[in-house]
Amino acid sequence: MRGALGGPRVLLRRLREVMAEPVSAQERLDKIVVLIAANMVAEVCSVYVLRVDGTLELYATEGLKREAVHQTVLRQDEGLVGLVASEANPINLSEAQTHPAFSFRPETGEEIYLSFLGVPILRSGNTLGVLVVQNRARRTYSEEEEEALQTTAMVLAEMIASGELLAMAKPGAEPAIRPRLHLSGIALADGIALGHVVLHEPRVLVKNVIADDVPKEIKRLDEAITTLRSDLDLMLERGEVADGGEHREVLEAYRMFAHDQGWLHRLREAVMTGLTAEAGVERVQSDTRARMLRVTDPYLRERLHDLEDLGNRLMRQLMGQDHAPPREQLPDNAILVARSMGPAALLDYDRRKLRGLILEEGGPTSHVAIVARALGIAAVGEIANVTGLVEAGVPIIVDGVTGDVHVRPPADIESAYGERVKLRAKRQAQYRELRDKPCVTKDGQTITLMINAGLLVDLPHIADTGAAGIGLFRTELQFMIATAMPRISEQLSLYRSVLDAAGDRPVTFRTLDIGGDKVLPYMRQEEEENPALGWRAIRLGLDRPGLMRSQVRALLQAAAGRELKIMFPMIAAVAEFDEAKTLVERELTHLRRHRHKLPDRVEVGAMVEVPSLLFQLDELLARADFLSVGSNDLVQFLYAADRGNRRVADRFDAISAPVLRALKQIIDKAGAAGKPVTLCGELASKPIGALALVALGYRAMSLTPSALGAVKALLLDLDVKKAQALLLPLIEKPIAGASIREQLVAFADAEGLQL
Ligand code: PEP
Ligand code: MG
Which of 361, 446, 594, 685 is least enclosed, having the fewest CB within 10 Å? Predict the structure, then answer.
């Protein structure tokens, strides 16, 4: 039996000739299957193409009955061919009939063939079809033959992707190369955007698949690898940060892979079969992507991503595209699609043209999601393989409210979304009209509405929303989006800009709240069993006072000649508050001694987000100038339900007696002690939450900027006394019957309040 090794190059050369012939697509396919069968000494060679309806259609065959072409259609879970497609993996069997997935279609006459080798036709990790060879006799196809068939499948992938086969397909049964897709992920940033795809890492499209001169291609590959390695060495030596904001650990991983013999061997093997160097890299990349789709272990996935990134670098090197194209040149209504992205990379894009963001990874607490929300871009995460499913320029809709994504949306979906966008714009315009109106309820209660912020890009929101100030400035965001620890001068400059932007409106700065889910890429942290309960926020601040001291110093200097409000996150015991306050006083003394200009007034407060404080409120109120309730953490800890874990995050309702009783206790005690309280968690950003808070007695809240309009509109129409009369008895009563939320909703309905 003649093996295909040595054969594939001949085969590829012949295939190239066929590809250049001026014949119809069907004739070309027919010739290709004959060539492959002859070259592999197989009795059968068939091409199945994946259709938009998810089935596999027989497009050409040598050896099976000709009548079956375009008649045989398999489901993706049907038979060995279906298995190759759904697993995106080759299947190589000397006795196919004994495989549990084996099934045959009588119209093809394939029951007499014993041996089976099927490989997926892959492009960018996506299955476009299946290429099969079969033999009547028992035969073991060698690894080289499997490799050769995969190489050949690449040529078919290019042919299918070129759209050449579209003309011969029935409507609704076209090859799945430009399908309409409805994908579901998780909502990361509120908003709806209609636009066109821009790939964050543009795919390098290999045009030239078949090599003229294999030794020359091997040489090109070797040279590119050498350059890649020395570039990586240089970057690591210089401590440089790569394009995507990758940090040292990632570069180290790249370097490790760049020397990995297994990877290098696979690349060389692919080129040896007769591909150009770049097509060889693409072949191996396709395998990596297909593997990535199957792997669920997060560590392994991360390594496969690294490997893919490295492959992309190598490909760019070979195609003479050293760098990704510049980010400024965005088309209008750009919807950015990326596997994952750092926050700094997102900020590099032109905000005026960016409408939406879609990520394969990234949860709601990811840093890039935080930045997307600050920028007001609709964003959706956790859409598997989206970078493989779309191409640049494709029309797409991002629904950051529900987490849906529509690729090439049909006209009815597009117009429905168009309507929603108009409606949202109308509502925003109504809220804008309320901007300069004082927030006074129907019965004359003044409510202070402020915004939460943390980045420079948040600052215009003060003016946009007409907020009374910044009730929570999350200082850790500057640290989280940076690639290295921000210097004290950088901190100072940000804090100054914040105070300048706020003018005479107050700003409450929260000292660093890192640890838990807020990880700094450049700061090594020990793995913890329960990070949310671990060494985080003020605990870390007090144990490593250097960091906190320099931050406090920067804050005091930035507020020279003005009023400064500082608060500490995650205080669990009054002693911690005392210690933190002493640190601030020490810094003040230090600056005074060095004749720095000081703030006119410094107020020091505590965040109430750990339930233990509920039982130390008297002591805390005696020491703190003000309190700020972090309802996100407080509710998480009261119910022992991880706020970042989708399975439990919404299991318990914040609008319920236990939480509202706790919140009431805080506001009552603070009122008695004459100390101001703000609530800055997400609870205040929902109209129904704000309604409950005001009824409990809260008069100051800090909100997500985009939520301010809706909350203000509700409060202007609210009769607080009526709401109080309903809610206060409800939370005192034993828990029974309809939920407090339901009763509040009914109240809002009866009062004509828009929730
Ligand atoms: C909170 O916990 O409610 C809060 C405002 O802080 P963060 O969301 O930043 O933890
Ligand atoms: Mg918190």
Answer: 594
